[in-house]
Write a structure and sequence with these properties.
Elements: E1 6-7, H1 14-18, H2 21-30, E2 33-36, E3 41-44, H3 47-55, E4 59-60, H4 69-80, H5 90-106, H6 111-122, E5 130-131, H7 132-137, H8 139-149, H9 156-167, H10 176-202, H11 208-213, H12 219-250, H13 259-269, E6 275-280, E7 284-286, E8 289-291, E9 296-300, H14 301-304, H15 339-356, E10 361-362, E11 367-368, E12 377-379, E13 381-383
Parallel strand pairs: 1-2, 3-9
Antiparallel strand pairs: 2-3, 4-6, 5-13, 6-9, 7-8, 10-13, 11-12
């Protein structure tokens, strides 16, 4: 019987959180997938095995309520009703109304508004160095997703705080303080959305909340969908923008002539979402191992996106990279529904930043969020002439 490859890589170790890619490269050279005894799951390190995990319908995204149940019910309620935490047929039922709403042209109609918002935010950055995360990368996608959904802009700051509190629960072994903050944020977030849904049912508007409130989804499912869209609709954009910007500026680069191609490289080079877990609903072969029914397997997206078997000069940031089959948005039934919005938003915001600050440069050391699953920067001080 062939032995199963194993790994002891600690994904919470400070040196791994700071720069996981050398560690991924070492693991990938030994195996595409390996058993991790500490977390009792498989980890995948190669583009082929990560892609296989995402594509195989027998490897499901199966939500399990976190305990204690009563205390964590506000957090669990938002997740057990999300499309991302369910498989077909529930996933299909939950995703279809949102996909239909996106298909009605809501995203493209926002492009002029994204440009307008970007110009307004950048107008406040003309005097000296500024924090490009706090003053630009964070507020822009929150304002955009609020407009798409129909959430009043007056809630922008609390939405950002609630989102960050909730996503910290996705890291390994969250502290009691992190758990308490996530529960409070989930409760407050849901209350706001319930009020908004009730208002839109009485006063329809041209936005996604109105569209979703008119579907067959239950109120809990509408609330979960809106919270997911608000969280995912800006978390990825903020972190992709910050990670890509730091990578470029640290290497003396600027966007290429084809800005969308540069955005794809930002998505690939330093992935905002590093880990996405699945559970086997039956025995499934992935690479050289068999994942038994009930076992968990984690797709390490950042590792896949630096695989030299797929990407030439995988460790280099190429602003004009032509072939770029990265897995940052996933593949299969869980492919990110907001990918078109994120791509449009990133292309517009990156172009606008360099038009305003053509000599953009880092000022001091960027401050990391210090998290692994959702990788990003808390603060990035930059300067440049206008």
């Amino acid at each position: 019987m062939r032995s199963v490859p194993t790994t002891s890589l600690d994904l919470s170790a400070p040196e791994v959180v700071a720069d996981p890619y050398p560690f991924f490269a070492e693991e990938r050279a030994r195996h595409g997938v390996a058993w991790h005894e500490g977390t009792q799951r498989y980890l995948t390190f190669a583009h082929a095995t990560v892609g296989a995990v995402q594509r195989d319908r027998r490897l499901g995204r199966l939500w399990q309520d976190k305990e204690p149940l009563d205390y964590l019910e506000p957090f669990n309620l938002l997740h057990r009703n999300q499309m991302m935490e369910n498989e077909p047929p529930d996933h299909t039922r939950l995703r279809r109304p949102v996909a239909s709403a996106f298909a009605r042209g809501h995203v493209e109609r926002l492009r002029p508004r994204v440009r307008e918002l970007a110009a307004t935010l950048l107008a406040e950055t003309h005097d000296g160095p500024f924090d490009v995360i706090g003053q630009y990368a964070e507020p822009l996608p929150v304002l955009v997703i609020c407009e798409l959904l129909g959430v009043p802009a007056s809630h922008v700051h609390e939405l950002r705080d609630w989102s960050q509190a909730i996503v910290r629960m996705y890291e390994a072994s969250p502290s009691d303080e992190v758990v308490a903050a996530a529960v409070a944020a989930a409760s407050d977030f849901a209350a706001l959305v319930r009020d908004l849904v009730a208002h839109r049912r009485e006063h329809p508007a041209d936005d996604l909340v109105t569209d979703l409130a008119a579907t067959e989804l239950t109120e809990d499912e509408v609330v979960a969908a809106v919270v997911l869209l608000l969280n995912a609709g800006h978390e990825a954009s903020v972190n992709v923008f910050g990670n890509g910007l730091v990578a470029m500026l640290g290497r003396g680069l600027r966007p290429g002539a084809d800005v969308p191609a540069t955005v794809e490289e930002m998505l690939r080079f330093d992935s905002a979402l590093q880990l996405f877990e699945r559970t086997a609903t039956e025995d499934v072969q992935v690479g050289d191992v068999v994942v038994e029914k009930g076992q968990r397997i984690a797709a390490l997206l950042g590792a896949a996106n630096r695989d030299p078997a797929v990407f030439e000069r995988a460790g280099e940031f190429d602003v004009d990279r032509e072939r770029n089959p990265h897995l940052a948005f996933g593949v299969g039934v869980h492919f990110c529904l907001g990918a078109p919005l994120a791509r449009m938003e990133l292309a517009e915001s990156v172009a606008a930043l360099w038009e305003t600050h053509p000599d953009l440069r880092l000022v001091g050391e960027p401050e990391s969020r210090g998290t692994f699953v959702l990788r990003g920067f808390h603060r990035v001080q930059v300067g440049g002439t206008t």
